[in-house]
Design goal:
By secondary structure, the protein is mostly beta strands. Helices cover about 5% and strands about 40% of the residues. The chain has a 19-stranded mixed β-sheet that branches. β31 and β32 form a beta hairpin. The longest helix is centred in the first third of the chain and has 25 residues. The radius of gyration is 22 Å and the shape is elongated. It starts with a helix and ends in a 30-residue tail after the last strand. The N terminus and C terminus are likely disordered.
Length: about 400
C-alpha cells in the first residue's frame, strides 16, 4: 500500500518539479543566508527546552541576550516530523537566525518554521523552501505575541488541496498580536496565499517582495496563489511592499491584495503590478475603516474593488492625494481641494477615479515615490511624485 501511494505521489510531483525548476531558473530568489551544518527537526516546547540538544547555540533568553538557534540546515524529509523548527508555549526571548529549512516530498503535511503560542521571538536571515505537495506553510506564526519575521527568503512551490491543511500560506500569522513581517522575499508558485493574516491584530507588513506565479500545473486542481490576504483582523498596516503577479492562470485569476471582514487596515505606498494584465489589484470585502493611498496599481485587469460603499477611504485627502492608476484617463489642469483653480496643475487628476462602488477623489498622475529620509534626521518625506519602479 505504501509503495503504491509513493508511486502515485511521485507521478504528481515529477511534472510539478520540472515546472518549478524552469520557473526558478527564470526567477531566482537568491538566499540571504547559508546554513552550514545539518540538523534534525527541532522541537522546543516551554522555556526549559531552549537547550543545546534542541539546536540552541547561545543566549540566556533575555531581551538583550535572546536564545539563538543559528546556522542549521534542516530537511523535512519523507517520513520526518511535520515541522522543521517548532517553538511552542514559550515566553523567553529567542531568535531563529541564518537557518535553512527545506520540505521536499513529505508523507504528511509539513510546516518549515512554526511558532505556536510563543512570545518574544524573531526569525530572520533564513531560507525556507517548501516544495512538498502536502505543505502547510513556510513560516507560520500562530497564537503568538511580539514576533518579528524579517529578511527571510520563503518559497512554496506545489502546495495543493490534497493536503489536510486548512491554509496554504507561504508566510502566515493566525490569532496573533504585535507581529511585524518586514523585508522578506516571499513566493508561491501555485495554490494558497503568499502572505496571509487571519484573526490577528497590530500586524505590520512592511517592505516585502511578494511574487505570485499564478501557474496551475496542467491537469491538477491547483488554484493560483494570491498575494497579501488579510481576514478577520484589525489594526493592520501594509506599506512599501512590491506585489507582483508574474503569470496568468487560466484556472482562476489571482488577487494581489485582499482585505476581508477586517477593520482599520492601512494600505499605502505599495507597488501592485500584473505583468500580463490579469487578476485583481486591491480587493476590499466587507471591510470597514480601511485607508488606501499612495499605491501604484499597474496593469491589473481589475485594479480595485470595494463591496462596502462609504465604509473605506481610497485617498488621503488634499493635497496628499490618492493612488496612481495606470488606466486613469483624466487630465491635470487644475488644483485645490475641489480641483477648480485653473490653470494650475498639481500632479493630481482633476476628476476622481471611480470603480465598483468606490472612488479615489485625488488620483495621482504619476507613480508615487516617497521622499527619502532627510540626511541626519532619520525622518521621512512622503510627498514625492517621481516614478517608482515596480
Amino acid at each position: 500500500m505504501m509503495g503504491t501511494r509513493r508511486r502515485k505521489i511521485a507521478s504528481i510531483v515529477m511534472p510539478v518539479v520540472l515546472l518549478i525548476t524552469s520557473f526558478v531558473l527564470l526567477n531566482p530568489i537568491l538566499p540571504r543566508a547559508v546554513a552550514s551544518q545539518s540538523h534534525s527537526s527541532i522541537l522546543i516546547v516551554g522555556n526549559a527546552e531552549f537547550t543545546p540538544a534542541n539546536g540552541v547555540t547561545g543566549g540566556t533568553g533575555t531581551a538583550s541576550d535572546p536564545y539563538v538557534v543559528q546556522g542549521w540546515n534542516i530537511n523535512v524529509c519523507w517520513q520526518c516530523p511535520y515541522y522543521g523548527i517548532e517553538v511552542a508555549n514559550t515566553t523567553a526571548y529567542f531568535r531563529i537566525f541564518n537557518v535553512t529549512v527545506s520540505s521536499l516530498i513529505t508523507a504528511q503535511p509539513a510546516t518549515d518554521i512554526l511558532l505556536n503560542n510563543a512570545t518574544n521571538g524573531r526569525i530572520d536571515n533564513s531560507v525556507v523552501q517548501d516544495e512538498s505537495i502536502l505543505c502547510c506553510g513556510g513560516i507560520i506564526v500562530e497564537s503568538s505575541r511580539n514576533i518579528v519575521v524579517n529578511a527571510n527568503n520563503a518559497e512554496a512551490g506545489t502546495c495543493n488541496n490534497f493536503s489536510s491543511c486548512s491554509t496554504y500560506d507561504t508566510v502566515g500569522t493566525y490569532g496573533s498580536t504585535n507581529v511585524t513581517i518586514s523585508g522578506n522575499s516571499i513566493r508561491a508558485d501555485a495554490s494558497g496565499n503568499v502572505l496571509g493574516v487571519k484573526g490577528s491584530s497590530n500586524v505590520t507588513i512592511l517592505n516585502d517582495t511578494i511574487l505570485m506565479n499564478g501557474l496551475a500545473p496542467i491537469g491538477a486542481p491547483w488554484d493560483p496563489s494570491n498575494g497579501i490576504v488579510v481576514s478577520s483582523s484589525g489594526n493592520v498596516m501594509i506599506s512599501q511592499n512590491s506585489v507582483r503577479d508574474a503569470a496568468c492562470s487560466a484556472y482562476s485569476p489571482a488577487k494581489s491584495m485582499i482585505v476581508g471582514g477586517s477593520s482599520s487596515v492601512q494600505i499605502f505606498g505599495n507597488n501592485i503590478t500584473s505583468f500580463y494584465s490579469c487578476g485583481s489589484g486591491i480587493v476590499l470585502q466587507s471591510a470597514t475603516g480601511s485607508l488606501v493611498y499612495h499605491n501604484n496599481l499597474v496593469n491589473n485587469s481589475v485594479q480595485a474593488s470595494d463591496d462596502n460603499p462609504g465604509k473605506n477611504q481610497w485617498d488621503n485627502g488634499y493635497p496628499s492625494g490618492g493612488n496612481f492608476w495606470s488606466d486613469y484617463k483624466g487630465v491635470d489642469n487644475c488644483s485645490g481641494p475641489q480641483q477648480n483653480i485653473c490653470p494650475n496643475p498639481d500632479g493630481i487628476g482633476d476628476t476622481p477615479y471611480a470603480f465598483s462602488s468606490a472612488q479615489d477623489n485625488y488620483p495621482l498622475m504619476t507613480p508615487f515615490a516617497a521622499d527619502p529620509p532627510a540626511t541626519g534626521s532619520g525622518g521621512g518625506g512622503g510627498g514625492g511624485r517621481a516614478p517608482l519602479q515596480a
